């Protein structure tokens, strides 16, 4: 499929989903929202892709809904409202239940709805010059879904400060690292994509079936109490018993070779 607002690439077993509206700081217009659903679905269904990296072209990672479109075209705001009322967040990997590992590689500014892609990623890397801000309340919108997601990753007060201060303050990559929003700050910034590819390549060496089961179990734990989460995790564990990868993994280790994982 060809895309107008995204670049979708594959490098080995790593799929890349790249926001590509640099002249609009990669803001999401209606076209991008539709293409994101298609791109996540395409990469999620591709058996060659074991890990997905999400980043942006130009000086921004993602800046959320295209406010100019919302304000001027007479359609954007109504469509955005309808998608939320119908609980259709199909532009996100979380809503689409993508069970492949997702790495967000944040270059430049990440603002507003762009924080969806940070909250939903399994691992977040940030360039040393990346910044984070949530301007929802500064444009008359409530800050909710993205920030609720971030509360699973970082202290509540830090999330509340970002949500309530709005566009009048930006969080640095270094501060985001201190708070647990990101797991690595890449310096110099020009190495961000290289670092993301290196990390994705490491993850992609593992069993795709085990990666998917692990992701489902760990994210699922955030939705449940401790006992229920452990029971669900145990079901994912036993669900892999008898899978060819459980035989191939130890055999490859004993024979000192790379495993040949089964592609479902």
Would you write up a description of this structure?
The chain is α/β, with parallel strands linked by helices and 264 residues long. It has 2 domains: 6-204, 2-enoyl-CoA Hydratase, Chain A, domain 1, CATH 3.90.226; 208-254. 42% of the residues lie in helices and 16% in strands. The chain has helices at residues 30-45, 67-72, 76-85, 116-119, 145-150, 156-165, 173-179, 192-204, 208-221, 226-239, 244-254, and strands at 6-11, 14-19, 51-56, 60-62, 102-106, 109-111, 123-127, 131-133, 171-172, 184-186. The strands form 2 sheets. A 6-stranded mixed sheet has the order 1-2-3-5-7-10, with helices on both faces. A 4-stranded mixed sheet has the order 4-6-8-9. The longest helix is centred in the first third of the chain and has 16 residues, at 30-45. It starts with 5 loop residues before the first strand and ends in a 10-residue tail after the last helix.
């Amino acid at each position: 499929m060809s895309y107008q607002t995204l670049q979708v690439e594959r490098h080995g077993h790593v799929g890349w989903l790249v926001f590509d509206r640099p002249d609009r700081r990669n803001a999401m217009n209606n076209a991008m929202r539709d293409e994101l659903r298609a791109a996540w679905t395409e990469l999620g269904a591709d058996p060659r892709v074991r890990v997905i990296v999400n980043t942006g072209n130009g000086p921004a990672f993602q800046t959320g809904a295209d406010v100019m479109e919302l304000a001027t075209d007479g359609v954007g705001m109504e469509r955005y409202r309808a998608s939320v009322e119908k609980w259709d967040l199909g532009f996100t990997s979380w809503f689409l239940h993508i069970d492949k590992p997702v790495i967000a590689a944040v270059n430049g500014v990440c603002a507003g709805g762009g924080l969806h892609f940070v909250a939903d990623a399994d691992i977040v890397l940030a360039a040393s010059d990346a910044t984070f801000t949530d301007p929802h309340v500064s444009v008359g919108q409530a800050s909710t879904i993205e920030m609720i997601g971030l509360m699973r990753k970082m202290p509540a007060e830090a999330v509340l400060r970002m949500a309530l201060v709005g566009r009048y303050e930006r969080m640095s990559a270094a501060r985001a690292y201190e708070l647990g929003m990101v797991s690595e700050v890449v310096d110099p910034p020009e190495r961000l994509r290289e670092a993301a590819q290196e990390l994705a390549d490491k993850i992609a060496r593992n069993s795709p079936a085990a990666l998917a089961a692990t992701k489902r179990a760990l994210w699922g734990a955030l939705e449940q109490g401790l006992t229920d989460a452990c029971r669900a995790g145990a079901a994912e564990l036993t669900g892999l018993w008898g899978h060819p990868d459980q035989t191939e993994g130890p055999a490859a280790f004993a024979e000192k070779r790379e495993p040949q994982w089964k592609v479902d």
